[in-house]
Amino acid sequence: PQRIYYLSLEFYMGRTLQNTMVNLGLQNACDEAIYQLGLDLEELEEIEEDAGLGNGGLGRLAACFLDSMATLGLAAYGYGIRYEFGIFNQKIVDGWQVEEADDWLRYGNPWEKARPEYMLPVHFYGRVDHTPEGVKWIDTQVVLAMPYDTPVPGYKNNTVNTMRLWSAKAPNDFNLQEFNVGDYIEAVLDRNLAENISRVLYPNDNFFEGKELRLKQEYFVVAATLQDIIRRFKSSKFGCRDPVRTCFETFPDKVAIQLNDTHPALSIPELMRILVDVEKVDWDKAWEITKRTCAYTNHTVLPEALERWPVSMFEKLLPRHLEIIYALNQMHLDRVAALYPGDIDRLRRMSVIEEGDCKRINMAHLCVIGSHAVNGVARIHSDIVKNSVFKDFYELEPEKFQNKTNGITPRRWLLLCNPGLADVIAEKIGEGFITDLSQLKKLLDFINNETFIRDVAKVKQENKLKFAAYLEEQYKVKINPSSMFDVQVKRIHEYKRQLLNCLHAITLYNRIRSDPSKSFVPRTIMIGGKAAPGYHMAKMIIKLITSIGEVVNNDPYVGDRLKVIFLENYRVSLAEKVIPAADLSQQISTAGTEASGTGNMKFMVNGALTIGTMDGANVEMAEEAGEENLFIFGMRVEDVEALDRQGYNAQEYYERLPELRQAIDQISSGFFSPRDPGCFKDVVNMLMYHDRFKVFADYEAYIKCQGQVDQLFMDPREWTKKVIRNIACSGKFSSDRTIMEYAREIWGVEPSATKIPPPNLPRD
Question: Which of 145, 363, 486, 733 could cysteine-pair with 166, CB 3.0–4.6 Å?
Answer without folding.
Answer: 145
